[in-house]
Write a structure and sequence with these properties.
Strand content: 15-25%
Low-confidence stretches: 1-25, 28-38
Strand order of the largest sheet: 5-4-3-6-7-10-8-9
Mean pLDDT: 78
Largest sheet: 8 strands, mixed
Radius of gyration: 19 Å
Number of strands: 10
Oligomer: single chain
CATH architecture: 3-Layer(aba) Sandwich
CATH topology: Rossmann fold
Number of helices: 10
Shape: globular
Structural class: alpha/beta
Helix content: 25-40%
CATH superfamily: Vaccinia Virus protein VP39
């Protein structure tokens, strides 16, 4: 598997673009002409995942190896949020709010009893300090302004809330598969720890994560299939590779703090939101404010579509 060297953009704590050196890894450099004509990251993600969900169905959360931990945490977290689950939710569907950019995914989750809202991680339709447990699996690496994404996670989380998210590691391990599925970056371990500190996240435990094939040639074949035979590849993934991956997924071996990441392609982190004030919102207040926020987002999107 070939690796492509580059320098990739990253947003600083104040939201401005910085250039981070990444010897041996990261997305390829883009010329001004390519920059002007290439699809946006949001478009790439929307296209890929709409195609994935179109031929799929909801996979219930108890089938994933995250279920033992998340079901236990959910039992004591009345206000729960999962961001960008698609049709692969990890939190219990009943009683959980789901935010996603895919209408088809939200439709499937709603049919299973979930509370669904159209939205993005960079502008969550929730008030400050309102969520006890928030999850974002394989999401922030798809976001150009990831600082804003982490800011939103920190904003909506109550004091001492649990925040769980996964990210790919090591920019020098960038592959064509990262490009295909709409990744913007991979994270260096030191960079990731710095981000946690910036957003008042205390790392409690972590674990090696992900179902990506370790074989380089298998990844190359997946990229070729998704590029040249998209419909057939999606059917093979949903009908064979996903069920096989679920069957073979190992039991998660959690480590306190940061696991040894030297040879780890993806990591799952469990963090606690540091205290900044006492959250006095009742469950009824949270429900009302969340509904109002969702209505505002819907109105803004309607206006935007009408303007287009």
């Amino acid at each position: 598997m070939s690796r492509i060297a580059s320098r990739e953009p990253r947003h600083s704590q104040h939201g401005s673009a910085e250039t981070v050196g990444s010897a041996g890894g990261g997305p390829p450099p883009i010329s001004p002409v390519q920059e002007a004509t290439r699809p946006t990251v949001a478009t790439v993600n929307q296209d890929f995942y709409d195609g994935l969900w179109a031929g799929s169905h909801v996979v219930l959360p108890h089938r994933f190896n995250t279920w033992p931990l998340l079901s236990a945490l959910a039992a004591s977290a009345p206000a729960r949020l999962e961001i960008g689950p698609g049709l692969r939710p990890r939190l219990p569907i009943l009683g959980t709010s789901f935010v996603d950019i895919s209408r088809s995914a939200l439709s499937g989750l709603k049919a299973c009893g979930g509370h669904v809202m159209l939205g993005e991680i960079t502008a969550l339709p929730f008030p400050d300090c309102s969520v006890d447990l928030v999850c974002a699996f394989d999401i922030v690496e798809h976001i150009e302004n990831d600082w804003q994404a982490f800011r939103e996670l920190s904003r909506v989380a109550k004091d001492d809330a649990t925040i769980i998210f996964s990210v790919p590691l090591h920019p020098d391990r960038w592959t064509g598969f990262d490009t295909l599925v709409g990744h913007v970056r991979r994270y260096g371990p030191d960079e990731l720890l710095a981000i946690l500190g910036e957003h008042a996240f205390v790392l409690e435990q972590s674990v090696v994560f992900g179902m990506q094939p370790r074989s380089g040639w298998l990844l190359d074949f997946a990229v070729w299939g998704m590029t040249h035979k998209r419909a057939q590849a999606m059917r093979w993934y949903n009908g064979l590779f996903l069920p096989l991956g679920l069957f073979l997924q190992p039991r998660l071996a959690w480590t306190s703090g940061l696991v040894d990441v030297a040879n780890v392609d993806e990591i799952l982190l469990v963090c606690r939101r540091s205290r900044r004030q006492t959250c006095l919102m009742s469950a009824e207040d949270v429900g009302r404010e969340s509904t109002k926020a969702a209505e505002r987002v819907k109105e803004d999107q309607t206006k935007e579509h009408a303007h287009i």
